[in-house]
Amino acid sequence: MRIMGLDVGEKRIGIALSDPMGWTAQAHSVLQRKNLKQDFAHLKKLCQENEVGKIIVGFPRNMNGTIGPKALEIEEFARAMNECIRLPLEFWDERLSSVSAEKTLLEADLSRRKRKMLIDKLAAANILQTYLDSKRNID
After folding, report:
1. Which one of 23, 53, 103, 124 is CB 3.0 to 4.6 Å from 14, fit for a cystine?
2. Are the CB atoms for 125 and 53 separated by under 8 Å?
3. How many domains does the chain have?
């Protein structure tokens, strides 16, 4: 069973998938958002094609750990998505995931245009990898 990681933004959703053993996260793709119905249909299809058994959604807490308006939007998105996809879902703290992804891409000396195309799926991979690592440390 694979696990899908999502970095949900207003315009794009970064998507990452774990390997079947749940050890590593790989950046998969970026979904250019259209509307909820089409977005959910795309994500559901990816889940079916890749035998996804669980979805991890990046949860944007404020730096002090509180929940702000963006986090509430993500909760609402995830609830609606769960009604369509019906897979176990878990939120995972995504603080600084995009910053970390941006730093990695800057170190790779990629152009601004290429960074923009990659940052969302790399942020999703960071979210998913930290989740996978935390579960491995517990087991």
Report:
1. 124
2. no
3. 1
- One-letter amino acid identity for 29? S
Residue 30: exposure state from Cβ atoms within 10 A (0-12, 13-18, ≥19): buried
Q: Percentage of the chain surpassing pLDDT 70?
A: 81
The model's pLDDT over 4-48, given as tens digits with 9 standing for 90+, comes to 999 999 999 999 999 999 999 999 999 999 999 999 999 999 999
> Which is nearest to 50 in space by CA: 16, 14, 91?
16
Query: Residue 106 has what pLDDT?
Result: 57
For residue 3, give the nearest of 74, 68, 77, 55 by alpha carbon.
55
In sign, the C-alpha dihedral spanning 1, 49, 87, 9 is positive
The token pair at 131 is: 């989740």
Give the residue numbers spanning the domain of 68.
2-138
For residue 55, the domain's CATH number is: 3.30.420.140
DSSP three-state, residue 74 = helix
Sequence-ordered alpha helix ranges (H) in 1-139: 36-49, 69-85, 97-107, 112-138
